[in-house]
Amino acid sequence: MQFNADSFNYLVPWLLLGVCLLYARQLLSRSGFEGKLVMRRRAWPLLLGGSFYGGFFGGGLGVLLMALTGQLRMGSSLQQHAIKLYLSMLASGATILVYSLSGLVYWPACLVLALGYLVGGKLGARVLVWIRPQLLAWSIVAFGIGLSGYYFVRFYW
Prior knowledge:
By secondary structure, the protein is mostly helical. 77% of the residues lie in helices and 0% in strands.
């Protein structure tokens, strides 16, 4: 059996749903999802796997990274978001480099998207400061489940 991008598409909704349920489980646990900002040894392979996924596909990467940092209790909710954004940037940056060198990029559209990312990131950082962490976390779960449902419909129907 050959594994390719089309085969991976059928795994995506299951992966997203699993990650969302994992994150929701962490939110419901008594120990919570926040902790000290430390990098534990067990975090390395998990974050590396998440980054590999982000470079290959990218859909739902934020939900995946929030679930991982929440499971590892890597800092406060705000710090977890900063880690998620930084790791997303690294995964996307590596992918951008590969595609840029391939000649497959339509640069005018990329410049518009880059501007949107910059404005969205600036506004997002300001909004995150005043949103309650629990509300934000449950919004992430809801968004991830919705995204998973979208991919179930897209890839299975």
